[in-house]
Amino acid sequence: MRVNWTEPALEDLEAIQAYIAKDSSFYARQFIERIFDAATKLEPFPEIGRRVPEAEERTDIRELIFQGHRIIYPTQPEHITIIAVIHGSRDLAGMEGKPW
């Protein structure tokens, strides 16, 4: 099984990196690398993440929590596709145009 990243998820990572880089570009790069590393843990165990509570109607939407960020992905038989990386303090329930 392989982890794929959607363009919106990569844009989320760019925004996170830009925000952290305001203080330290070194730590910004390191943090993004660690998010990628965390996502690779999904390859052997795609259902390791919990179901996303805000996706009530979608039982296939799961998330892996990494240092206050939600790595959101649907479970699929052949591959994992990361669809969003959202800070845990953001109101996902009130968000228009949810990632799924």
TrEMBL record:
- The signal peptide, as residue positions, is none
- InterPro entries from the UniProt entry: RelE/ParE_toxin, RelE/ParE_toxin_dom_sf, TA_system_RelE-like_toxin
Q: Which domain of life is it from?
A: Bacteria
Q: Which UniProt keywords apply?
A: Toxin-antitoxin system
Keyword match Oxidoreductase: no
Protein family: Belongs to the RelE toxin family.
The protein's name in its UniProt record: Plasmid stabilization system protein ParE
User: Taxonomic classification, please?
Assistant: Bacteria, Pseudomonadati, Pseudomonadota, Gammaproteobacteria, Methylococcales
